[in-house]
Fold each of these.
Amino acid sequence: GCGNSALSYDLHELGYTDVTSIDFSPACIAAMRARYARCPGLHWAVMDIRALTFPDASFDVVLEKGTLDVLMVEETDPWHVSPQATASMHRVLAEVSRVLRPGGCFISITFAQPHFRKPHYAQEAFGWSLRHAACGDGDAGAFHYFLYVMRKGQPLDPCDVALGRRLHQPP
């Protein structure tokens, strides 16, 4: 869900001239189309992240910034995610994996710490490797955010494979 973020436009201004953005809100997409009508390389579509209508292997890069966090918003215990939220996250990530080309990259930017998010990403079925980095300015009162990078067609580290398997074990 691109929402009303300027990220797509910022990418366009950096030279990425073919950027497709989706959101489930028709009003949001209409507003973004109107706001950036002068940028023909920006494409907008109303779509549900759980059921992407793009063909298989159609993107070199998929980037999400906080969209997956919405799937966890009603969870009361991040250590014990409900089966419904886990299934929803899996469905979205399977769709991302499906639309990535071999060698493609999925980038996820979130406040979710690795011990909470990596088990969802570390599924062998997605066919990607997994790396992450903490980002932030280092101020004592500042929140860090996390950058996760998955590369389609590269293997998961054995430790990540084990981490992903724990997600589906009973607590």
Amino acid sequence: SGLLSRLQTSAPTIRTLSSSKSFSQNIPSCLWKLGRLNHVAIAVPDLKKAQSLYKDVLGAQVSETVALPEHGVYTVFVELGNTKLELLHPLGEKSPIASFLQKNKTGGMHHICIEVDDIKAAMTELKKKKIRILSEEPKIGAHGKPVIFLHPKDCHGVLVELEQA
């Protein structure tokens, strides 16, 4: 009992989140809200091999390949329990994925996609907050919904896609 009492008296006090200020008290109110993580996009140099890894080796449900000429990519979605992976492969020489793969020969994480409830309100507010948006208007993304991309230099090195929920 001597050791136990010494441990109890010398243990540091730990503040829990429930006893501290709520995180939401520090977040300014917006006219729009962030939603769930929709997907993580991965640029791949060989789409067939990547599809095979997720489908045949890991046993995931993998979509068919879809061409998105407006974005310069082929896409394949890998279904996960709580989100998706988007496999991206260049479509055409001017594809942003082609230039990404020139710098990253084996591929890698390209962007994250987060849903928003009002993409137009998000654009207006983000512009006011000096966050650069990579297009003047939303484009229709792989899910048939409006999307925008935020400049990675304004998002701590991460290319962020916002998709209308």
Amino acid sequence: PRHDPLFPQEHGLDFQRLLDASAYKETYRQDMIRWGEEKRRTDPGFFCRTVVEGVVQPVWVVSDTRRLSDVEWFRDVYGDAVQTVRVVATEETRKRRNWVFVAGVDDAESECGLDQGVAFDWVITNDGDELSLDEQLETLLRSLRGRL
């Protein structure tokens, strides 16, 4: 729900440029976060309902969910069909991938709101070991196929 075309539509911005790691995105990041927080304050399910509106396929992946209220909404609406997956990497790995901590952004709820309070069904470690990652993903996929 974080990458939502509603913010750029309402503010006359280039949606595609907001999806990359450009300075353009960084210029508007704080405004997007504030806008999203205000929408969630008035209606916690706003973005979740937007994501599922008109969806008919039997399986879908909602990636990049950021807040406990989002996870709770999906669990309330879809129950046991929901499987939560957290992908983790060490801070060292993230730095090797050019991540740099930015105060006020990386410690905001939009970035770390799920660091506590969620019992994830799956935790996948992605520290650069391709074989390990493939094995973890294969186990996850086998389990999901078994639920269909």
